[in-house]
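Session log. Operator J.P. requested a structure for one protein chain; no other inputs attached. Running the standard single-chain path with token output.
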Amino acid sequence: MHLLSVNQGGARPHPRGNGRQTGIYKEPVAVLTVTPVGVAGDVVCDRQHHGMPSKALCCYSGDHYPGWAERYPDGTWAAGTFGENLTVAGLTEDMVHLGDVWQIGAVVLQVSQPRGPCATLAGRVGLPDFVKVCLEVGWTGWYVRVLAPGDLRAGDAVSLRQAHPAAITVREANEVRYAATPHRAGLLRLLAVDALSDEWRRDLSELLARAG
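Structure written below.
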């Protein structure tokens, strides 16, 4: 397990227009300086959904890019396409658990929630139904909070420092969160994870209230 690429970007016009800007267009850089609130020099335009301490960095598995290229050969599927700061090799949503603590050199990260695919991502890749497809295949990525800051580079080894005892994978969390019918037991299990981000805790609590 290692970093395939470390990525950051500036503000660019939003793919859906309306005069907005977005920071989803990330490009590989030589060194990524990680802070408790995100990446130094990285632009976050939508502060309501990105850039908060519990979602300081977005991670995506580079193992998925060949699969996307096979599904959509006319697209450009390279590190940073999903707006991720860290493109990782050897890790997927089936292996990463909510609350897991990972170490990369001096940097320590904790998984806080799955990455929720959105309309901005669909516009970025030029596929209107991409949110639905991402959730169906489960290749969403995940967010982490920063427990210890530092610099990261492509090639850095990634190691599991502490597995969370609940052992709920990112894929399982997505299945509960986006189920057609709210599942009370599953929602309660997710809400019991102490490392869960405030955003997901709020959303899951609303689903739980609807589940009765």
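Operator note: The mean pLDDT is 91.
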